[in-house]
Amino acid sequence: MPELPEVEALRDFLTEHLTGREIVRVLPVAISVLKTYDPPLTALEGHRVVGVHRYGKFLDVQTGGGPHLVTHLARAGWLHWKDSLPSGMPRPGKGPLALRVALETGAGFDLTEAGTQKRLAVYVVADPREVPGVARLGPDPLADDFDEARFAALLDGERRQLKGALRDQSLIAGVGNAYSDEILHAAKMSPFKLAASLTGDETARLYAALRDTLTQAVERSRGVAAGRLKAEKRSGLRVHGRTGEPCPVCGDTVREVSFSDSSLQYCPTCQTGGKPLADRRMSRLLK
Q: Which H/E stretch holds residue 181?
């Protein structure tokens, strides 16, 4: 799933390639991705792009005098830039293509979604805050005013485990499954540790890991073409998606805890005092 660093890199890329360009055609291929109907997609046509913004994991293409095109790529969605779009109308139901945006230059981009769980979402709105997911976002962890005191206030009294708290978009915007694993590894903390149990020193350590991990990921992704961002993300991850590999810090084997629709990865030596975390799903399989 694209998270804050990848969406920020897409924002940079689209700012360079879209700003000042006129949208001449918006072609819906998978109607299921459209979550709004008023204004219609055609309301974007004939307007020039005046800015591209990011809200958490949401990407916002703003037009001058027209509406905003807001996209959430969800788990399996992606944006593919094309310097020259194919001629002709795309055929619905053929492949992963969900939406095509064409510019007056002949360039444009496709939104695609792989797999059977269709969660890619596209909104056409007068104001991004009309999108429910945007309206309930918590603060951006890379914002200038997101300091340690504000982070500590968010976690004060938070009874959830750190993994779940970091992924809650209404608490902190933009962190998902992969970067929450990376942040907790950098902070040397168990994903199952209760947020409310953190000491002042631990809160400071987690805050530093949060900012450093995301900042470094953004810097690695900056200037990378949209089509190579997934590979860049993978190359920078230390524990997420690396079950069975050696931890790059201590050499212990990276382990996994599986859930019904996701999993987390961690290093026992770095994060849990050498003790493996209980994997309930695996335990049931072994009975």
A: helix 177-187
